[in-house]
Amino acid sequence: MLIPSIDLKNGRVVQLVQGERLAIESDDLDGWVARFAAFPKVQLIDLDAALGSGDNDALVRRVAPRLPCRVGGGIRSIDRAEAVLDYGARAVIVSSALFRDGRPDLEFARSLADAVGVERIIAAVDSKAGRVVIRGWTEPVEVTAVEAVRGLEPYCGEFLYTHVDREGLMTGTDLDAAQAVAAATSRPVTAAGGITTRDEIDALDAAGIDAVVGMAIYTGALALDHA
Known about the structure:
The chain is α/β, with parallel strands linked by helices and about 230 residues long. The protein has helices at about 30-35, 45-50, 55-65, 80-85, 105-115, 145-150, 175-185, 200-205, 215-220; strands at about 1-10, 10-15, 20-25, 40-45, 70, 90-95, 100, 105, 120-130, 130-135, 140, 160-165, 190, 210-215. It is about 30% helix and about 30% strand.
C-alpha cells in the first residue's frame, strides 16, 4: 500500500533532503489534503515539533479530522499522544520518547501503550549509518533498527522504518534493510526513505510492507493516478 506523506515546517508543506535541505515548499495544504483524500492512510509529520523548534499544531488540528492520519513529530509524552488522538488522528507515530540512554525505553513504551492502546501506537525506528537516530535524525543511539523492533514489539501496533540514508534523494530505498526489520517482528511494518517507483512499492507490498512516499509524489516522479 502507498501511504502519501504530508510534512509540515514553518506553517508550510515541505519536502527535505536528508531531513535538512529544503527541496520543496508549498502553501497549498488544502490542495494536498484534497489530493490525498482517497487514500486509506496518510502520514502527517510536524517537523518543527520533531526538531523541538516550534510546532504546526494548528495545521495538525486542521488536517487530522479530514484524513485517515497517522501523526508524528514531537510526541514525547502521554498527554501529547492523547491530545493528537483527540484531534482525530487514527494513530500516533512515536520516536525519540521510546529511547533513553541509548536504548529502548520499555518503561515509557509500556506506560504509553497502557494509556492509549497498543493498536494506536506506531513506533518509529529511523536508521542512519546502521543505527537508530532520534530527535529529528540528529542523535544516534546504540541499537540497530532490528534490535529496536525486537524490544518494542509488545508496546506498539506497527513499526515505521525510515532508511534515512536514502531519504529525499529519490535513488531508491534499501529493500533488504526494510525486509530485515519486517522479519524481526510480527507487527506490520511501513517503510520510508527514498521510495520512488511503482516497482519499489510493489516489491515492498509483496513482502507485506507498506510504503510511505513523499518526494516522488511532490516532484511528480510518481503520479498519483498510477498509485
